[in-house]
C-alpha cells in the first residue's frame, strides 16, 4: 500500500542537521523493499485477488470505496472521489507514466523539458497565457499549479479553488489542451531551454554533485546511475521541436496516463468531464516497449556472503564527512497483498529498533553524530537498505565501525520483547492518528497518494483498513520474526559505498571497502535497558492555580481565560478537525531580550533546549514518555517571544501541557545535547559556503537586521567559545521571564482542558519581568555598490538581493497586507523579465516582511539566483520595475492575478484551525488581534491600482534600496 510504503515510524528525536544529500535525493523517489512474508496470513479483511478495479489487480487489500476507478475506451485510467477539504476545491493530478529513465541518450532531459513546454504553449493556451490563466482561476503558480518530473513519471498538479460548473469546464478544457495537444515551436524551445538551464544552475553545486556521484556508484551499470531528470547541457541545447515531439508522441498517450481528481464536486460530474475532454485522445502509433531499468550486479570475483563492490570517495571541501553504503537487491514488481504489507511492517519494526539503538549510542557519547538505516524501493531499479553515518570527528573509520557493531548485534541476536513492544506502541499511534483525523485529509493529499501508488505499482487503502491490518499483524511481531527480517534486509546482490569528505587524504576507495569488510564484534551495549516511565510517576508542577476570568470573544466563540498566577489562554474547542489539537505556548521576550554577546546560545537553544530535559527526566526518559503517544517538543524563537508548539490529539493534550509547563518550572541542563548541538552546527557551517544560495540563506536574515548577531548563524569560532555552563546561564534566566500565553485550538473538552491548565501552567511560580530593550531593528542604509559576499561553489552561479525598507508595528497591519500584494505584482513582473524574456533566472522571488510586534525593520525584497554576468541585468530590472510601479498604476488584470489567488488562499485556509491559530497568536495578551483578523479578506482581495501605486511611491524609493550580491570566490 502506498501509505505503508512511505510510512516511517517515529524514532528517537535525533540531532542530525547534517544529513546526507544522497539519501535525501534517493529516498524522495522511492518506497520500501520486498520483505520475507510471515508464514501465515492475518485475519485482516481481504478482497479476492484480481477482482477489484485497475489499481487493485493482484491485490487482496480491500478497496478504498470512496474512490471511483475506471478506464476509458482509449485506455486512459481515472480515479475520482468527493472530498470537502478544503471546501470548494478540486485537486487534479495528471500522471504520465514516463520520466527520465524512459529517455534515450540523445533525449536526456526531454521528459522535464516537455513539462516546461506544456505550460508554455498548447491548444487552448497560447504562449505566455498559462500562468495568468490559472491565476485568474484563483490558483497560485508554483503551489496550486505545478508539475514535477522524476525518473519514472511526470505529474501535472492543479489545485483549483472555488469550483463551479464553469470552472470545472475551463479546468478540464485547458488541461486537456496542455496534455493532449501541446505546441512545440522553435521559439518555445529556444525560450524554455535557457530557463531549464537556469534551473540546472540553481540546483548545481556540491549537493548535486554528491547526489549524482552517489547515484553513479549505487546504480552502476543501470540507467538510474546516469539519468538525472534535469538532463545535460548538450542534449538540452540540441533539442528541437521535432525531437521533443518524438518523445511526447511515444509516451504521452491515453494508455500510458492516469488522471486523478479529488475534491468538492460530484464524482459523476468529474467523470463526465474526463470523458468529454480526454475521451477522444488518441496515441500516435504503437506504444513503445517499456525500457529495461536493469538490476544491481554482483561484484566480479566477490564473496557471495559479503559482496562488497564499488566504492568511491567524493571530495567536497565545504561539506562534512558522511559515509553511506547500500545493500542492493533487484527490484521486482510485487503483488500488494495483506501478507506483503505485514512483511513490510516487520521490516520497519526491525529498522526502528536499530535506529533507536543507534541514537542511544550517539547520545551516550558515540563516535558519530548521527546514523540511520532506511529501507527503500528506488525508482523501479533496486531494492535497497541504506545506511548513513555522520562521524563526530575526523575518524570516520571508528564511526563506521561503531555503527556496524550496532547493526551486527541486531543481526546476531533477536530483539527483546520490551524493545518490540516499545516500537509496536509507536506504530500503533502512527497508524491510529490517521484513523482519528481522516476527516481532515485534504483532497490534494489523497490525489497525491493515488499518483504515488501508481508510480510504485501498489495500492491505496483507507486509514481504517491500514490500522486493521496492523492490529491483526501484532501476533506476528515476534523476536524470531524480527531477527529473520532484519537479516534479510542486510543481504543483497552487492554492497556499494560512498564517502563524502572535505579532504582527499581521508581515505581511498580501498579503505572504504576495508571498512565494510573488516570483522566487527556485535555491540550489545547499544541495547537500551528495559524500563518504564509514565506521567503518573512525575512530580506535580506545583500547587494548582484557579481559573479567575473567562470571557467569550465575538469571533467564533473563541474563549479568552486567565489563571490565578496571571497566565492567559485562548481556547477554541471545535469539531472542524476531528482528532487534532494545536497547542502554542508564547512566553518571554524572544530575540529582543537575548544579550547580543550571548547570540550563539540563541542558535544552540533552538536545537538543544528541549533535549536537555526537565526535573529528573532526560532525553531517553522523554522518548519513553512519548512512546505510543502523539507528543511534541518543538521550540522556536521569534522577534519578541519564545514559542513551544505541538500538534497533538485529545487523549494526549493534558500530558502535552505538562511537558511544556515542566520545562519552564523545573528545567534540566544535561550537557550532552548542547555538546551535540555544537558539533552539528560546526559540521554544518562550512556547507553554507558551498553555493550562492546557501550563503544568501545563511546571512540575509541578520544582514537585513543591520547585522544584529542574534539572527546570525554562528561560525565555528563562536561555537568553540560556547559551553554547557554558558548555555545554562543564558537559558535559565530566559525561561523565567515574561508573561505566558497558552493557545489551544481544536478537538478537546473545554472543562477538562481548563483543569489541565490549572494543574500545569496555573501551578507555575510568578514570572520575572522582561527587561527593557528598546529593540528596533532596521534595514541597513545603502552604501553605493552592493555588499559583496563570496561562495565556494560553481563559478557560473551567483545570487542577488535588493531590499527596500518599509515599516513595522501592529498599527500598520492594513498596509502590511497590501504590501504583500505589491510584492506579488512585483514578483510577476520580475518573473517575466528575468525568466521569460532572458532566461537568466529560474525562479526569482519578491516578498514583503512587516514585523507586527516591532516598531521597525520591515522590508520588501527581491532575490534571484543567476549567472554572475546577469547581476547587472537583475539590478537594472528591479530598479525599472520599482520605478514603473511608482510611476503608473498596475493594470486591473495584474491586480486580479494577485488578489484572486490570495482571496482563494485565505478562504481555503480559514476552514482549518491552523489559520486562526496563526492569525490570533498572542491574542490573549494583545486583544487587538481579534480586530485585525476581521479585515483580512478585504485587505488582501480589495485594492485599487491607485492604492498600489501610492504604496510603490512611498516605499520603492530608488535611493533607499539596499543591495547584496553573492559571487564566486574564497
Automatic annotation (TrEMBL):
<dbReference type="Pfam" id="PF05193">
    <property type="entry name" value="Peptidase_M16_C"/>
</dbReference>
<keyword id="KW-0645">Protease</keyword>
<dbReference type="InterPro" id="IPR011249">
    <property type="entry name" value="Metalloenz_LuxS/M16"/>
</dbReference>
<dbReference type="GO" id="GO:0046872">
    <property type="term" value="F:metal ion binding"/>
</dbReference>
<dbReference type="GO" id="GO:0008237">
    <property type="term" value="F:metallopeptidase activity"/>
</dbReference>
<comment type="similarity">
    <text>Belongs to the peptidase M16 family.</text>
</comment>
<keyword id="KW-0378">Hydrolase</keyword>
<protein>
    <submittedName>
        <fullName>Peptidase M16</fullName>
    </submittedName>
</protein>
<dbReference type="InterPro" id="IPR050626">
    <property type="entry name" value="Peptidase_M16"/>
</dbReference>
<feature type="domain" description="Peptidase M16 C-terminal">
    <location>
        <begin position="240"/>
        <end position="425"/>
    </location>
</feature>
<feature type="domain" description="Peptidase M16 C-terminal">
    <location>
        <begin position="740"/>
        <end position="898"/>
    </location>
</feature>
<keyword id="KW-0862">Zinc</keyword>
<dbReference type="InterPro" id="IPR011765">
    <property type="entry name" value="Pept_M16_N"/>
</dbReference>
<dbReference type="Pfam" id="PF00675">
    <property type="entry name" value="Peptidase_M16"/>
</dbReference>
<feature type="domain" description="Peptidase M16 N-terminal">
    <location>
        <begin position="90"/>
        <end position="202"/>
    </location>
</feature>
<keyword id="KW-0482">Metalloprotease</keyword>
<dbReference type="GO" id="GO:0006508">
    <property type="term" value="P:proteolysis"/>
</dbReference>
<dbReference type="InterPro" id="IPR007863">
    <property type="entry name" value="Peptidase_M16_C"/>
</dbReference>
Amino acid at each position: 500500500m502506498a501509505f505503508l510504503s512511505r510510512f516511517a515510524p517515529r524514532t528517537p528525536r535525533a540531532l542530525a542537521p547534517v544529513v546526507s544529500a544522497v539519501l535525501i535525493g534517493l529516498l524522495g523517489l522511492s518506497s520500501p523493499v520486498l520483505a520475507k512474508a510471515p508464514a501465515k496470513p492475518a485475519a485482516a479483511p481481504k478482497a479476492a485477488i484480481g477482482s477489484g478495479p485497475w489499481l487493485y489487480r493482484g491485490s487482496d487489500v480491500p478497496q478504498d470505496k470512496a474512490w471511483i476507478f475506471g478506464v476509458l475506451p482509449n485506455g486512459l485510467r481515472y480515479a475520482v472521489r468527493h472530498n470537502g477539504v478544503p471546501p470548494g476545491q478540486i485537486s487534479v493530478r495528471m500522471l504520465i507514466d514516463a520520466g527520465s529513465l524512459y529517455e534515450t541518450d540523445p533525449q536526456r532531459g526531454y521528459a522535464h523539458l516537455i513539462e516546461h513546454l506544456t505550460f508554455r504553449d498548447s491548444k487552448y493556451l497560447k504562449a505566455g497565457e498559462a500562468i495568468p490563466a490559472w491565476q485568474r482561476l484563483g490558483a497560485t503558480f508554483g503551489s496550486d499549479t505545478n508539475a514535477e518530473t522524476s525518473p519514472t513519471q511526470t505529474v501535472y498538479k492543479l489545485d483549483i479553488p472555488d469550483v463551479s460548473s464553469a470552472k470545472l469546464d475551463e479546468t478540464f478544457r485547458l488541461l486537456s489542451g496542455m496534455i493532449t495537444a501541446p505546441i512545440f515551436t522553435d521559439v518555445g524551445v529556444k525560450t524554455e531551454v535557457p530557463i531549464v538551464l537556469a534551473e540546472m544552475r540553481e540546483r548545481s553545486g556540491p549537493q548535486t554533485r554528491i547526489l549524482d556521484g552517489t547515484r553513479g556508484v549505487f546504480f552502476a551499470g543501470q540507467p538510474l546511475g546516469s539519468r538525472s531528470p534535469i538532463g545535460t547541457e548538450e542534449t538540452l541545447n540540441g533539442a528541437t521541436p521535432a525531437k521533443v515531439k518524438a518523445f511526447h508522441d511515444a509516451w504521452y498517450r491515453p494508455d500510458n496516463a492516469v488522471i486523478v481528481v479529488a475534491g468538492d464536486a460530484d464524482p459523476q460530474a468529474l467523470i463526465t468531464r474526463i470523458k468529454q475532454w480526454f475521451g477522444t485522445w488518441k496515441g500516435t502509433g504503437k506504444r513503445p516497449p517499456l525500457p529495461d531499468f536493469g538490476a544491481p550486479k554482483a561484484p566480479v570475483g566477490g564473496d557471495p556472503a559479503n559482496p562488497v563492490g564499488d566504492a568511491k570517495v567524493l571530495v567536497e571541501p565545504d561539506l562534512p564527512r558522511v559515509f553511506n553504503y547500500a545493500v542492493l537487491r533487484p527490484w521486482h514488481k510485487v503483488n500488494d497483498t495483506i501478507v506483503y504489507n505485514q512483511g513490510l511492517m516487520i521490516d520497519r519494526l526491525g529498522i526502528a529498533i536499530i535506529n533507536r539503538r543507534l541514537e542511544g549510542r550517539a547520545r551516550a557519547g558515540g563516535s558519530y553524530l548521527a546514523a540511520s538505516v532506511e529501507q527503500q524501493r528506488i525508482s523501479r531499479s533496486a531494492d535497497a537498505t541504506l545506511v548513513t553515518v555522520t562521524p563526530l570527528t575526523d575518524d570516520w573509520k571508528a564511526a563506521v565501525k561503531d555503527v556496524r557493531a550496532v547493526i551486527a548485534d541486531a543481526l546476531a541476536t533477536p530483539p527483546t520483547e520490551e524493545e518490540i513492544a516499545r516500537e509496536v506502541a509507536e506504530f500503533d499511534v502512527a497508524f491510529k492518528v490517521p484513523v482519528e483525523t481522516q476527516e481532515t485529509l485534504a483532497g490534494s493529499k489523497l490525489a497525491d497518494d493515488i499518483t504515488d501508488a501508481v508510480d510504485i505499482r501498489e495500492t491505496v487503502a483507507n486509514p481504517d483498513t491500514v490500522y486493521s491490518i496492523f492490529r491483526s499483524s501484532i501476533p506476528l511481531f515476534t523476536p524470531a520474526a524480527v531477527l529473520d527480517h532484519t537479516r534479510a534486509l542486510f543481504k543483497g546482490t552487492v554492497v556499494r559505498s560512498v564517502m563524502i569528505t572535505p579532504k582527499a587524504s581521508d581515505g581511498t576507495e580501498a579503505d572504504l571497502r576495508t571498512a565494510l569488510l573488516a570483522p566487527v564484534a556485535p555491540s550489545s551495549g547499544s541495547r537500551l535497558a528495559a524500563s518504564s516511565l509514565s506521567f503518573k510517576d512525575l512530580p506535580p508542577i506545583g500547587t494548582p492555580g484557579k481559573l479567575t476570568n473567562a470571557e467569550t470573544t465575538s469571533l467564533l466563540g473563541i474563549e479568552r481565560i486567565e489563571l490565578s498566577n496571571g497566565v492567559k489562554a485562548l481556547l477554541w474547542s471545535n469539531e472542524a478537525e476531528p482528532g487534532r489539537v494545536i497547542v502554542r505556548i508564547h512566553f518571554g521576550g524572544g530575540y529582543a531580550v537575548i544579550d547580543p554577546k550571548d547570540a550563539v546560545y540563541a542558535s544552540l537553544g533552538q536545537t538543544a533546549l528541549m533535549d536537555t530535559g526537565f526535573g529528573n527526566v532526560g532525553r531517553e526518559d522523554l522518548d519513553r514518555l512519548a512512546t505510543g503517544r502523539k507528543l511534541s517538543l518543538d521550540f522556536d524563537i521569534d522577534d519578541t517571544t519564545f514559542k513551544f508548539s505541538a500538534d497533538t490529539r485529545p487523549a494526549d493534550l493534558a500530558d502535552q501541557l505538562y511537558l511544556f509547563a515542566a520545562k519552564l518550572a523545573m528545567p534540566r541542563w544535561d550537557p550532552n545535547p548542547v555538546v551535540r548541538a555544537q558539533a552539528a552546527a560546526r559540521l554544518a557551517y562550512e556547507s553554507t559556503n558551498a553555493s550562492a544560495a546557501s550563503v544568501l540563506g545563511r546571512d540575509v536574515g541578520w544582514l537585513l537586521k543591520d547585522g544584529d548577531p542574534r539572527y546570525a548563524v554562528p561560525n565555528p569560532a563562536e561555537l568553540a567559545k560556547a559551553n554547557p555552563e554558558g548555555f545554562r546561564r543564558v537559558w535559565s534566566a530566559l525561561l523565567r521571564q515574561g508573561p505566558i500565553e497558552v493557545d489551544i485550538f481544536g478537538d478537546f473538552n473545554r472543562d477538562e482542558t481548563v483543569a489541565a491548565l490549572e494543574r500545569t501552567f496555573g501551578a507555575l511560580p510568578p514570572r520575572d519581568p522582561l527587561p527593557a530593550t528598546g529593540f528596533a531593528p532596521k534595514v541597513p542604509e545603502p552604501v553605493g555598490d552592493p555588499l559583496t559576499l563570496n561562495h565556494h561553489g560553481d563559478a557560473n552561479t551567483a545570487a542577488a538581493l535588493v531590499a527596500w525598507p518599509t515599516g513595522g508595528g501592529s498599527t500598520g497591519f492594513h498596509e502590511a497586507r497590501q504590501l504583500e500584494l505589491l510584492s506579488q505584482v512585483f514578483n510577476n513582473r520580475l518573473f517575466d523579465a528575468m525568466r521569460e524574456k532572458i532566461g537568466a533566472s529560474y525562479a526569482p522571488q519578491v516578498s514583503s516582511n512587516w514585523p507586527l510586534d516591532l516598531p521597525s525593520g520591515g522590508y520588501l525584497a527581491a532575490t534571484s539566483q543567476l549567472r554572475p554576468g546577469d547581476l547587472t541585468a537583475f539590478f537594472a530590472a528591479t530598479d525599472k520595475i520599482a520605478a514603473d510601479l511608482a510611476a503608473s498604476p498596475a493594470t486591473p488584470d495584474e491586480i486580479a492575478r494577485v488578489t484572486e489567488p490570495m482571496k482563494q488562499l485565505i478562504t481555503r485556509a480559514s476552514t482549518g484551525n491552523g489559520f486562526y491559530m496563526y492569525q490570533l497568536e498572542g491574542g490573549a495578551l494583545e486583544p487587538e488581534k481579534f480586530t485585525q483578523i476581521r479585515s483580512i479578506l478585504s485587505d488582501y482581495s480589495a485594492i485599487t491600482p491607485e492604492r498600489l501605486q501610492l504604496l510603490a511611491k512611498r516605499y520603492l524609493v530608488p535611493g533607499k534600496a539596499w543591495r547584496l550580491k553573492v559571487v564566486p570566490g574564497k
